[in-house]
């Protein structure tokens, strides 16, 4: 698994904290930078932020778990989000999700064994006119079909 040790995390977190002059008001930005660096928020990083900013670990953890954009568990290199909102659902989002599960070999909410992909079923992504929609690494893929799943995966590799 991708669990980072204190020895790996500490120097990177220190650089990020210094970038923000250890300003407690910049906690969200600091966590965003850490997530960008590690693709999730490792516990040793949260502990280092708590210590570096002089704030309780409960405060850091509270912010890290409040925002859905943050993840406390390792994520795959590429993120795939299948919109399951009403407009996408009635246009076949379930079939697309099933095909992704089949091709990737992992269920929604999980990562592939090689950590290349994270697959999630999400609520409405706000692109109903394009449904069904799959969001890959932040890019919206509209009018998705089961036939487009294989090329979509291959395009990420």
TrEMBL record:
Highest taxon of the lineage: Bacteria
Coiled-coil positions: none
Gene3D superfamilies hit by this protein: Glutaredoxin (3.40.30.10), NADH-quinone oxidoreductase subunit E (1.10.10.1590)
The protein's required cofactors: [2Fe-2S] cluster
Record protein name field: [Fe] hydrogenase, HymA subunit
Keyword Iron appears in the UniProt entry: yes
Family annotation (InterPro entries): NADP_DH_HndA-like, NuoE-like, NuoE_dom, NuoE_N, Thioredoxin-like_sf
Entry GO MF terms: 2 iron, 2 sulfur cluster binding; metal ion binding; oxidoreductase activity
Assigned keywords, A-Z: 2Fe-2S, Iron, Iron-sulfur, Metal-binding
Residues where [2Fe-2S] cluster binds: 83, 88, 124, 128
Family statement: Belongs to the complex I 24 kDa subunit family.
Keyword tRNA processing listed: no
Source species: Dehalococcoides mccartyi (strain VS)
Transmembrane parts of this sequence: none
Pfam families (alphabetical): 2Fe-2S_thioredx (PF01257)
Cofactor note: Binds 1 [2Fe-2S] cluster.
């Amino acid at each position: 698994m991708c669990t980072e040790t204190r020895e790996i995390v500490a120097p990177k977190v220190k650089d990020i904290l210094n970038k923000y002059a250890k300003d407690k008001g910049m906690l969200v930005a600091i966590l965003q930078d850490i997530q960008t660096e590690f693709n999730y928020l490792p516990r040793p990083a949260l502990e280092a932020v708590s210590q570096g900013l002089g704030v309780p670990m409960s405060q850091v953890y509270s912010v890290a778990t409040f925002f859905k954009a943050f993840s406390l568990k390792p994520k795959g290199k590429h993120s795939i989000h299948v919109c399951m909102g009403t407009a996408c659902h009635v246009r076949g989002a379930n079939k697309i999700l099933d095909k992704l599960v089949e091709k990737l070999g992992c269920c929604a909410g999980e990562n592939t064994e090689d950590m290349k992909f994270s697959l999630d079923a999400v609520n409405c992504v706000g692109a109903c006119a394009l449904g069904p929609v799959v969001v890959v690494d932040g890019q919206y893929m509209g009018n998705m079909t089961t036939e487009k799943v294989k090329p979509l995966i291959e395009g990420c590799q």
